[in-house]
Amino acid sequence: MSDDIRTPIREFISAKFPQISLADEEDIFALGFVNSLFAMELVMFVEKTFGVRVPNEELRLDNFRTLNAMAELVRSMTEGARLSAG
To answer: 21, 29, 68, 73: which is deepest, by most CB within 10 A?
Structure first.
């Protein structure tokens, strides 16, 4: 998985919660600091940063639980956009 995707997401989360050190597979919801407002901020950040639109069917908790899950979601959406444009 590309660190290029995880790095800005990690920096965004760290800016909001500087007291934590987040591992790639750590469940940010299980840590207890993420609420529904932050979850929506996270979705908007991902969309703006990576130039994607997260479809409603992909707005599942499992896609945003870990840095790896978010990176995989972005990767799949950007690859899908390239394939449909090509």
So the answer is: 73
Domain-by-domain residue ranges, the chain?
A: 3-85
Q: Is the dihedral of CA 34, 25, 53, 56 positive or negative?
A: negative
Cβ-based neighbour number of residue 48 at 10 Å: 9
Chain-centroid distance, C-alpha 75: 10
pLDDT at 79 over 90: no
Q: Are 81 and 20 in contact (CB under 8 A)?
A: no
Which token pair is 70?
């978010």
Q: pTM of the entire structure?
A: 0.86
Q: What is the CATH code of the structural domain delimited by 3-85? A: 1.10.1200.10
